[in-house]
Design the sequence.
């Protein structure tokens, strides 16, 4: 493993509910109560309609891989983990998340794959929402 | 051709410290490039009243710093940083400022010693804030990983191949063999690109731009001043900029950057069609980057960028001369390449490009891409 400290989320007023939920194994996604669109990353104002009337929803935990890359040369903090898969996944809640795909061989990952969330412990303020293939 | 009465022109260009700063600072390199550009124009620092620069690491007030170093008292200043495309945006900003009478002689500079200082890293460590908290903890190499995600999506949607991506690097290297200043001048093959170290699939090491030092500068001015310039002016016919997202997770269509919008605006302002362009300098941070730009700028249809680079040919023997300096892939890439796209376009339009000269080039395009396919800025240029 690398000696370099892994980058870790530093929650703020926008993101604190999201990261707090990850510690409970829960994926929360924001949505706008006025235009009803999903929002990610968390914000204090809707990027679609400027509403400040936002809420948190329990996500289904399911997603579909939009695209991915298998990382072979990693940022220094991740050098001991290669190869690994970083992906953009589309959630039925209408948002796209950057994440890791775990729980399968890197060569088995493909665009369009159905995946579901799991949480990888990181710090005392955040666990990382990763996704693995649906069994 | 456009009416030049209210137009602005590039009248001087200069380079310094490519590919190695040889111990000089990025401030020194920018001063050397600026002096070269001003001498090229037949002007001096005393003539400059507008200063434009962008920097990732030199200073929190980089345009003010460059002006101080050179002894310039600017009445117009702009340190817009939208990534590697900043300098195409600066041309647009300078053109608007000059047309509005806010300044008359604008100096655009960029310089970096990232290679010498070994300051380049693929990612952060420790606590991460703001939008980075949703990206860096997952280990995406930046900015490279964002381009890999787009390339993978492009392959999935359109059947684009690694060989087609590699062709961009190979053709660009052919140009670099003709540029005495280029860092990489040995002929390159598709097999060599595909055999180079995989960084983040589908991008190999040789799908990625260089890490070098270097500086560049441009002098841009009104038609009145340009009338007395040492060399034939290169007219700014059109410009446009756009951005859609900062982080790759917020890019709506992974294969369609905002070059669609910046390009349309620049072409419309210029009154020029893509098929009229004689030489194209299109930011090649990674081999996928110009493929996406070719499509969204209208040189070919969406999804046709791969076949375009193999069938049309973008090298010295092809029918679409692109990145004639050797580009960011083989000439130099000091962190941001936008200013060098403009310099090469100007030299091509002046007929100063030596062995790599595109015969009788009349219209050129310089198109920058910045960030994680985040920002786009396009400039259409014409020889006088």
Sequence:
């Amino acid at each position: 493993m690398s000696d370099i400290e892994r980058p870790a989320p530093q929650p703020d007023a926008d993101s604190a509910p999201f990261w707090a939920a990850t510690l409970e194994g829960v994926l929360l996604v924001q949505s706008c109560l006025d235009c009803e669109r999903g929002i990610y990353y968390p914000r204090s104002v809707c990027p679609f309609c400027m509403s400040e009337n936002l809420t948190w929803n329990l996500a289904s935990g399911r997603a579909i891989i939009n695209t991915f890359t298998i990382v072979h040369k990693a940022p220094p903090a991740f050098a001991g983990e290669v190869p690994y898969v970083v992906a953009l996944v589309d959630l039925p809640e209408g948002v796209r998340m950057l994440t890791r795909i775990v729980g399968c061989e890197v060569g088995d990952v493909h665009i369009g794959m159905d995946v579901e969330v799991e949480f990888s412990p990181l710090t005392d303020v955040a666990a990382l929402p990763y996704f693995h293939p649906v069994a | 051709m456009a009416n030049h009465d209210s137009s602005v022109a590039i009248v001087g260009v200069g380079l310094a410290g490519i590919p190695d700063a040889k111990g000089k600072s990025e401030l020194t390199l920018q001063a050397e490039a600026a002096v070269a550009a001003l001498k090229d124009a037949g002007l001096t620092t005393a003539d400059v009243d507008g200063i434009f620069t962008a920097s990732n690491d030199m200073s929190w007030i980089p345009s003010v710093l460059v002006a101080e170093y050179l002894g310039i008292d600017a009445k117009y200043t702009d340190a817009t940083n939208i990534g590697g495309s900043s300098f195409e945006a600066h041309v647009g900003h300078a053109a608007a400022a000059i047309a509005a009478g806010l300044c008359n002689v604008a100096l655009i500079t960029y310089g970096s010693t990232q290679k010498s200082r070994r300051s380049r890293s693929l990612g952060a460590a420790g606590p991460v804030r703001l939008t980075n908290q949703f990206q860096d903890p997952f280990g995406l190499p930046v900015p490279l990983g964002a381009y890999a995600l787009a390339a993978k999506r492009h392959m999935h949607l359109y059947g684009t191949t690694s060989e087609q991506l590699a062709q961009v690097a190979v053709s660009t290297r052919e140009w670099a063999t003709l540029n005495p200043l280029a860092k990489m001048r040995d002929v390159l093959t598709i097999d060599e690109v595909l055999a180079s170290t995989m960084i983040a699939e589908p991008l190999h090491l040789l799908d990625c731009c260089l890490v070098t030092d270097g500086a560049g500068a441009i002098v841009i001015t009104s038609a009145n001043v340009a009338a007395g310039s040492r060399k034939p002016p290169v007219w700014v016919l059109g410009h446009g900029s756009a951005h859609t997202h900062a982080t790759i997770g917020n890019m709506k269509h992974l294969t369609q950057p905002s070059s669609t919008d910046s390009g349309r605006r620049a072409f419309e302002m210029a009154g020029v069609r893509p098929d009229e362009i004689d030489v194209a300098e299109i930011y090649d941070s990674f081999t996928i980057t110009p493929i996406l730009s070719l499509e969204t700028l209208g040189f070919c249809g969406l999804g046709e960028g791969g076949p375009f680079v193999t069938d049309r040919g973008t090298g010295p023997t092809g029918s679409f001369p692109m990145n004639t300096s050797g580009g960011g892939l083989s000439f130099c890439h000091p962190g941001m390449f936008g200013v060098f796209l403009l310099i090469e376009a100007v030299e091509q339009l002046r007929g100063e490009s030596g062995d790599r000269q595109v015969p009788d080039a009349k219209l050129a395009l310089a198109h920058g891409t910045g960030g994680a396919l985040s920002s786009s800025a396009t400039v259409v240029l014409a020889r006088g």
In short: The first strand of chain B starts at residue 8 and ends at 16. The domain at 8-117+213-236 of chain B is CATH 3.40.47.10 (Peroxisomal Thiolase; Chain A, domain 1). Chain B is about 35% helix and 20% strand.
